[in-house]
Amino acid sequence: MKKLLISGIGILVLALIVTGLAVCGTVPLSTNSISGVHVADDTVAAGNNRFAFDLYRQLANDPVHARDNLFFSPYSISSALAITYEGARGTTADEIESVLHLPTNETLRRAGFAGLDASLNRRSGNYTLRTANALWAEETYSFLPAYIDAAARWYGANVTNLDFVNDPRGSRETINRWVEEQTEDKIRDLLPADSIDDLTRLVITNAIYFKGTWVKQFDPAETAEEAFRIAQDEIVRVQMMHRTDEDAIYGYTETGTLQVLRMPYAHGNGTELSMLVILPKEDNLTAAEEALDPEKLDELRGSLTDRRVRVVFPKFTLETEYSLPKALAAMGMPTAFSPDADLSGMDGTDMLFVSDVVHKAFVDVNEEGTEAAAATAVIVAGGGAVGPETAPIFRADHPFVFLIVEKDSGTILFMGRVVNPEGP
Question: Residues in domain Serpin (predicted)?
């Protein structure tokens, strides 16, 4: 019967814009960390980071993205699907939990996400960092009070009723305006035309926005056009920033195949954030991607030392968009996208399933700092010390991987690779 009703029940959208922190919880500690501190295995932060590496590999290995820049928010996507998970049951819930590496303890999981939201909204005069959640429900449709209450209590997502049946276009525009306002207009038209119709039942939105300045800002007068190697025999001309003075002190380490640089953002009394750049010494990006593993990255992160580094780094702006059902299904959660999905924890029926997961992300890196945002739409249908005098040169003039990381919990806020700074 469900197959006959695939087009018959509405849309659940989770719009998220990125960044995140975590609560470690009282469980044994391991080396699953990229922040210089140990992170407990069974926490939201640890699960988010494992999901980040898994999804990066899935996207990077997809032939469709073979020569593409990548940029996404693992925290945005995992947060969106965590709210979906609150309404999932049976195999559907088991698969989402496994793919997201969610804490198995319900209290730890819920308190973890609640703690992240509280931390994200802690004010700082040095950067802008905020998050907000909301539920948008079809005014004539009934949802289980337990689901609505869980969304409000643990995710701060209060419900607003909209007339999806008689005014789907107006409802879509209302939600899109909210997302745009939360992201300073960096994520526009999250819900495309015709994504909401008279069969839509619920839209869940989470928005996160970050804008920060470097502790060590680059002088625009030092920025110059230089070559960036896309491949061994292919270059593009890009704007390269330079910071090579005596005060260019950064966290730095290197191995036989990699250079790793930590560029912190000014934070005042707020949470400490930084960009971690993994640059292969040769032009083989695989060397950097092989480091995207909790233990390997923890080892690199733990070996960073503050020293003078001559930094040459490209300015770039990336805007990306992904449809994720294929990737997420391949990672181990196919049931949510099938007629066998069980999202009965949302409405008490077995008629809902996820028809699409669309993710958009934006990042702008310049002399002053970084601005980043992302959005995820899950559509549910159904009815210190200076180093040696000779400073190393960190010249990022060929493809590299980068992450924006929260220091205390080690949570990855943004993640991507730059293959071509002039690309989309």
Answer: 53-421
At 398, list the tokens.
């060929």
Neighbouring C-beta atoms of residue 150, cutoff 10 Å = 18
C-beta separation of 256 from 304 below 8 A: no
3-state secondary structure of 93: helix
Distance CA 94, CA 158 (A): 26
Q: So where are the chain's domains?
A: 2-213+317-382, 220-315+386-418
Put simply, whether the predicted model's pTM sits higher than 0.85 gets the answer no
- Residue tagged 């997420």 (tokens): 328
How far is the C-alpha of 131 from the C-alpha of 135, rounded, in Å? 14
Give the separation between CA 170 and CA 13, rounded to whole angstroms.
Answer: 16
The span from the CA of 231 to the CA of 246, in Å, is: 32
Q: Per this entry, what is the length of the chain?
A: 424
With both helix axes pointing from N to C terminus, report the angle between 74-85 and 44-60 in degrees, rounded to the nearest 10: 110
**Pair 408, 21: CB distance under 8 Å:** yes
C-beta separation of 378 from 81 below 8 A: yes
Candidate CATH numbers 3.30.720.210, 2.40.50.100, 3.40.50.1580, 2.30.39.10; the one for domain 220-315+386-418: 2.30.39.10
